[in-house]
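Exercise 7. Predict the joint structure of the components listed below.
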Amino acid sequence: MSHFSELDFSTLVALAAVFCALSAHLSVKLARLRRRTVQLKTANDLLKEHYTALQKVVDHPTIPEKYKERLLHFSEIISDEKAFADLLQQVVQEDLYRDNEAKGYAKNLAQLRAQDPDLAEAFSSAVRSGVAAMMLRYPSVEEILESTMARVYAAPRREGAVFAGAMRKSRSDHHNDHDHLAVAPA
Amino acid sequence: MAVLVLEGPVSRKSTGTGALKLHYNSSLYNGTKLIMLRSFDAAVCPVDSVSSQVYNTIVKYLGPHGPDALLAFVIFAGVLGAIVGGLDPYLATGFGIAIYGLYIFRRWGAERHAERMAETEIAKTELELQRYRESQLLKIERAKVKALSPPHAGKGDKK
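Solution:
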């Protein structure tokens, strides 16, 4: 008891403040680490979903080659961090879902759904799960996510917009070698 | 300890006393029985104790920093108590900081490890996906080249 009465109150407050600050700082860092781990685990699950759906589409015996190729290129584009960040910016800023490519995507998906609903679902799932996985995978897109990406999935047609953006990027990357793969507008 | 072999749909509920209440539904028997399980079974299906329920409630209430904040509070209270009890303030504070530091160090290691493991897992999936994608794209390109090349290409000019 004697020690406590001898202790300067300001020293005690200073010690408490230092301890609180240290604990808050470390606690925030730990929470960030935990959050990142959860994000990565979820991203991995979604990526596996994307992979399974991609395999289902690509290995399907009756699917046209152009669908296969476009989906593989889409997967390639979203797997590149910088390209994916650019793509998201583009989707958010431009009305890509009014683009012919996006309209073509919707039309082709509807046609595919009429022929084989399971296959169409796999195609759509590959696009959705791929985008969602990469949103969590890359920390650099976090800012875009927080501010505006909620809009992407609020409007269902944005799925086509992401696809259209990726196709546009794929074409520019391959120096217009794939012009013949462009989807005919509706 | 009684060992009961159950066949059929079973659901379990914690009774809060360490035993399990099994709701057993079958065509022969329909009812609720309170049974004691072997320690092995109890270990496989751990039951939340009251203390862990209280701990979880507090941690949940404290939010995302729950465990750390709770420990910091406990240590802070302990340090104050030690000072009031007559321990040298600097020694008590140092001891508190040492305990908290040790905890943070261990947690940090565990969290870093978990993050690294998650990163490795996703990198593996990405690699697998990339290989698959590249092999499929290569197949498509080969098919295209084959389709574009003339039927007698590669045979050379006959003189």
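Discussion. The interface with chain B takes residues 1-4, 7, 11-12, 15-16, 19-20, 22-23, 26-31, 33-37, 40-41, 43-44, 47-48, 50-51, 54-55, 58, 65, 68-69, 72-73, 75-76, 79, 137 of chain A (CB under 8 Å).
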